[in-house]
């Protein structure tokens, strides 16, 4: 087994090739543009296979933008500027932290992309460093390249003919970290991803939140093929994803072995498409009946494939290939029939029409004739690939499993970028960056423990969250215990990452706590109010001490109401009375203040 990573992390800076802000928006766009993209040959006369497949789908693309935050560069109506010097510095800092050798000059390349996610039809990317490494408990992992590139547009809608993208994400600077296939186990893969993530966050100059970091995993087994799994978001899913991909490849290797034992050769994987619509004129299958109104039912014989399409592997793979290539939602194959309303007699009729022998299988497709024929061509192509075992391809992570996206891109998709001059990396710049390298995760965790009395777990969580600068700024003021500050920031970490809360809100929260405007007990309620859509200042006003009753008047009222109980219990009435008072002022007055006030007024009452 061989495992490698490509980790993509958004940098916290404005767009890479213009001055537009790196700001995602959810309001109504101010402009839309409709386009189609076409394939073109490389300088060597080659056409990238993945790009050709995308073009054959015949899709159009709608781009949404905003007049105040999107410029002509994102629309590919103006040449790129840049690169953004701040983004370059952040990327070089990360490269130095990964022990890599930085290039003398940064030269950008164009990487062909024809799924519409880049308006130009390519992504701009540049190698900024090479020959880095990362140490893990199971050994050193080499990092052959580190790149700086632009983020793709954000997909917001899709149907069979059109994909809609928002341009707000297009051009956000990304650092891409590629490891060698040195990872030996699923557990080491998780550790490597976690360590790289901790290193990135230690810079405190990368974006946080869902979608800002992505892990693409490359996996292969002996006798298999390199498969790229894209879009891995959660660390804890990495081991299971790898284990499932290994099992999938082993299953496909076994299918190839069984086909070889049956004597099936590449020239056998061919066949005439048969129109079997007439066999289903009275069918009970709702799916087929629905397609018969405007379509046909076509069938294809697969020699030697009987018993190899079921079990949720090859048949499912064929169905996914068909869906990606034609938009048809699925296929029927003989290993799963009779089912779905298709009867045993109908299966027998199709088998007879196709002249099936003992080891043969068939595939059925229902739909418009042109699309159905295209679908069976795709089935034949995937069946031919099955003779050699797993094909090289790109797959999308879906929880702990994957599904086919497209063929693995080839070298023909890369060519030079002619619009951007080289960026010279001076020794003075590197010296400055080396002198100011951020603390590592381990160094920062140890310092927070020593300087502020935090426990290891709390300090580590704070560093991983990337909010240590906010924490230290508040803790150094000395007005609030450091553990209270840390726990509050961690509770609000997700909201800070998504932009629901701002650092200024957290600072205002502790300022209000320091002057007695709110109590410590009110903090969770205030955070909940903001998550529910309330303005931060409104939440403070609603739950703060200023909105509560006069404490001494409240205490005196409760003492009068419980006079008999107090005469009976004396000083022992303090604790029960405390509960009654806190029931009315919880979140509005600090518990310590309540206790002191109640004790004093109770002593006055008992001494009268």
pLDDT average, as an integer?
Answer: 90
- Unreliable parts: none
Tell me the helix content: 25-40%
User: How large is the radius of gyration?
Assistant: 32 Å
**Count of domains:** 4
Distance between the termini: 84 Å
What structural category characterises the helix and strand content? alpha+beta
Report the sheet with the most strands, covering strand number, pairing sense and barrel closure: 11 strands, mixed
Q: Count up the helices.
A: 21
Strand content: 15-25%
How would you describe the shape?
globular
* Counted beta strands: 21
Helix and strand layout, with pairings?
Elements: E1 2-10, E2 31-35, H1 49-56, E3 60-65, H2 85-97, E4 101-102, E5 105-106, E6 108-112, E7 122-136, E8 139-150, E9 154-158, E10 162-166, E11 173-178, H3 186-202, E12 213-220, E13 227-232, H4 238-261, E14 274-275, H5 286-292, E15 296-302, H6 314-326, E16 332-333, H7 344-354, E17 361-367, H8 369-386, E18 393-398, E19 401-407, E20 414-416, E21 423-424, H9 427-435, H10 441-452, H11 456-465, H12 468-475, H13 482-491, H14 493-498, H15 503-514, H16 523-531, H17 536-543, H18 551-561, H19 563-569, H20 574-585, H21 591-607
Parallel strand pairs: 3-10, 13-18
Antiparallel strand pairs: 1-11, 1-12, 2-3, 4-7, 5-21, 6-7, 6-20, 7-8, 8-11, 9-10, 12-13, 14-15, 15-17, 16-17, 18-19
């Amino acid at each position: 087994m061989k495992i490698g990573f490509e980790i993509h992390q958004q940098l916290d800076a404005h767009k890479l090739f213009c001055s537009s802000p790196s700001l995602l928006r959810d309001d109504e766009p101010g402009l839309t543009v409709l386009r189609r993209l076409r394939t073109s040959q490389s300088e060597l006369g080659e056409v990238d296979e993945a790009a050709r497949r995308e073009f054959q789908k015949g899709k159009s693309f709608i781009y949404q933008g905003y007049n105040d935050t999107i410029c002509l560069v994102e629309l590919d109506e103006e040449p790129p500027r840049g690169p953004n010097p701040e983004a370059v510095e952040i990327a070089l800092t990360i490269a130095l932290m990964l022990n890599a050798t930085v290039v003398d000059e940064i030269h950008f390349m164009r990487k062909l992309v024809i799924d519409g996610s880049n308006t130009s039809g390519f992504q701009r990317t540049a190698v900024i460093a090479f020959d880095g490494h990362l140490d893990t408990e199971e050994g050193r992992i080499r990092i052959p390249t580190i790149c700086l590139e632009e983020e793709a547009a954000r997909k917001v809608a899709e149907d069979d003919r059109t994909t809609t993208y928002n341009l707000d994400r297009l051009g956000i600077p990304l650092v891409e970290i590629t490891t060698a296939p040195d990872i030996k186990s699923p557990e080491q893969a998780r550790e490597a991803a976690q360590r790289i993530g901790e290193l990135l966050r230690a810079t405190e100059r990368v974006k946080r939140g869902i979608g800002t970091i992505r892990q693409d995993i490359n996996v292969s087994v002996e006798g298999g093929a390199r498969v790229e799994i894209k879009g891995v978001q959660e660390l804890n899913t990495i081991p299971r994803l790898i284990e499932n991909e290994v099992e999938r490849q082993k299953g496909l290797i076994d299918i190839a072995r069984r086909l070889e034992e049956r004597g099936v050769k590449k020239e056998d994987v061919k066949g005439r498409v048969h129109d079997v619509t007439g066999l289903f004129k009275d069918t009970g299958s709702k799916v087929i009946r629905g397609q018969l109104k405007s379509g046909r039912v076509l069938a294809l014989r697969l020699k030697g494939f009987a018993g190899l399409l079921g079990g949720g592997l090859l048949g499912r793979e064929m169905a996914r290939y068909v869906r990606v290539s034609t938009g048809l939602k699925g296929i029927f194959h003989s290993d799963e029939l009779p089912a779905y309303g298709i009867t045993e007699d109908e299966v027998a009729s199709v088998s007879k029409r196709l002249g099936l022998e003992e080891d043969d299988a068939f595939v059925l497709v229902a739909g418009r004739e042109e699309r159905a024929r295209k679908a069976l061509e795709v089935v034949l192509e995937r069946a031919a690939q099955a003779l050699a075992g797993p094909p090289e391809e790109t797959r999308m992570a879906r929880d702990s499993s994957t599904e086919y996206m497209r063929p693995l891109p080839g070298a023909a998709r890369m060519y030079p970028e002619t619009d951007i001059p080289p960026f010279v990396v001076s020794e003075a710049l590197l010296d400055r960056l080396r002198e100011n390298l951020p603390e590592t995760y381990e160094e920062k965790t140890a310092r927070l423990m020593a300087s502020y009395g935090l426990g290891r777990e709390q300090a580590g969580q704070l560093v991983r969250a990337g909010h240590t600068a906010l924490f230290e700024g508040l803790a150094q003021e000395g007005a609030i215990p450091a553990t209270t500050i840390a726990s509050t920031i961690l509770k609000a970490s997700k909201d800070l990452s998504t932009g629901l809360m701002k650092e200024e809100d957290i600072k205002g929260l502790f300022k209000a706590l320091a002057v007695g405007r709110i109590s410590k007990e009110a903090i969770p309620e205030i955070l909940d109010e903001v998550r529910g859509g309330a303005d931060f200042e409104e939440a403070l006003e609603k739950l703060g001490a200023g909105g509560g009753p006069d404490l001494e008047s409240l205490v005196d009222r409760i003492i009068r109401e419980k006079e008999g109980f107090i005469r009976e219990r004396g000083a022992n009435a303090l604790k029960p009375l405390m509960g009654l008072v806190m029931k009315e002022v919880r979140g509005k007055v600090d518990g310590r203040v309540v206790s002191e006030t109640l004790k004093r007024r109770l002593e006055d009452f008992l001494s009268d």
